[in-house]
Each structure stands twice: as C-alpha cells, then as structure tokens.
Amino acid sequence: MLNQFSRTELLLGREAMERLQNSRVAVFGIGGVGGYTVEALVRSGVGTIDIIDDDKVCLTNINRQIYATRKTVGKYKVDVAEERCLEINPDVTINKHRTFYSPETSAEFDFSEYDYIVDAIDTVTGKLELVENAYKTKTPIISSMGAGNKLDASAFEVTDIYKTSVCPLARVMRYELKKRRIPKLKVVYSKEKPITPTEDMAISCKAHCICPPGTARKCTQRRQVPGSTAFVPSVVGLIIAGEVIKDLTK
User: Fold this and answer.
1) What is the mean pLDDT of residues 145-167?
2) Hey, where are the domains in the chain?
3) What is the per-residue DSSP string for the chain?
4) Over the stretch 115-150, which tens digit does the pLDDT of each residue have?
5) 13-201+229-249 belongs to CATH 3.20.20.10
C-alpha cells in the first residue's frame, strides 16, 4: 500500500521498514546536529524516538537548528520538536525529556530500553556518561565530535574514536575512554582544524545575552562562543541518522 515511506521502502525493503517501525532511538541533544538527526529518523519511519534536551530555542539558533524559527524562539526545543515530528508522522511515538543529561541525571534513563543511542550533546562529562552507560547495556551508540568552528561539511567521516586525529574533542574522548577501558566508539568527526571565531562584542552573546532570566548554562558563562553555519551541523546530523538507519536495518 502506498504510504509516506514508500520511496524509502523501495530501497530498504518491507522487512527493514518494519524493523524501523519497531525500533526505539534516543537522541541526546536536539540542537544543530541532533535536530537534523531526529528529522531524518522520523522521515525514515523510526517508530519511537526519545528526545532529550532542556534548552529553549534562542535567536542565535536560527542559523543552524531545524527547530529554530522566529515563531519558536523562547519555546522548549523538545516541545517544538515533538510538534514537528507529529506533523511529519502522526503515528510516531515521541518521548520528551526536558532534561540536561549529565552524571547527575543519568539515573533517569534506562539504556536497555533503547535500540540505538545518539550522542549529540556538547559536554565531555555528559558524553562520557552516555558512552559508559551504553557500553554497560551493550546498546549501540554513535557520537558526534566537534562541529562548531568548522566550515568544510565534506570533511566529516564515520570512524572509530581510536582512529581519529586533529579534532580536539575527539582527542579528549580518546584519552578518557581509554582510561575507562572502553574499547570502541563509533563517531562522526572531521580532521579540519577548528577556526578561531572572531571576538566581536558587537555581535557576541557575551555582551548581548538574550537568554531569559534563570536560563542555565548561558553563553556568557562560556570561555568562547563557538561560530557555526547552516551546513556543517546539519550534515553531521544527517550522517549520524544514516548510520543509525543502516545499523538498525542490516
């Protein structure tokens, strides 16, 4: 029967589409990278998706985040994402977690319930906690390395964390995972050297913060506000989604 996933089924087959429908994927962080991952997973027919993020849409997100528009500024990203996902596929199950994932909040999640985990968060402590929990439950996971301060979307590749080089975030992750005796981690990363963003206070969040009062982890608290584009995080997110779909259907 003709349906919205018919074009995908022409390539993957009916059995693969049924596996996707019966799969549950958790996407931690739905910003520039994770938002596009969720978008592709929904459009590919994944039946259940957990979205984890405690952030609200900011004006400065519009340049790169699929859920960020003038109408959604100030709304919680998970709320905006849920609405969009259901508009794409009314039958998808979206489990919202308005939570900042960290070692302190990790107990809220049962990793054994997931068929796949996507790490699209920014903090090293959070990433390490995700990988450790996935490793304990033997749940497949893919992790995004640094996408900020980069311009070459064609340079990103999928590999194991221990085969990475150049990327500063990947270097830290390699070191920390080795200490924890975690033998492998599928990642998306680039050998492009990060560009040092311009420190222009006329357009800097540090000087013109527009976050609502009480917002946690404001840009004003960062050592450096990273630069970003519309085309790099989106490519990383779509690469990740492609790997998830491939692994779930093989």
Assistant:
1) 96
2) 13-201+229-249
3) ---TTHHHHHHH-HHHHHHHHT-EEEEE--SHHHHHHHHHHHHHT-SEEEEE--PBP-GGGTTT-TT--TTTTTSBHHHHHHHHHHHH-TT-EEEEE----STTTGGG--GGG-SEEEE--S-HHHHHHHHHHHHHHT--EEEE---TT---GGGEEEEEGGG--S-HHHHHHHHHHHHTT----EEEEE-SPPPPPP--TTS-TTTS--PPTT-SS-GGGSSSPPP--SSHHHHHHHHHHHHHHHHHH-
4) 999 999 999 999 999 999 999 999 999 999 989 999
5) no
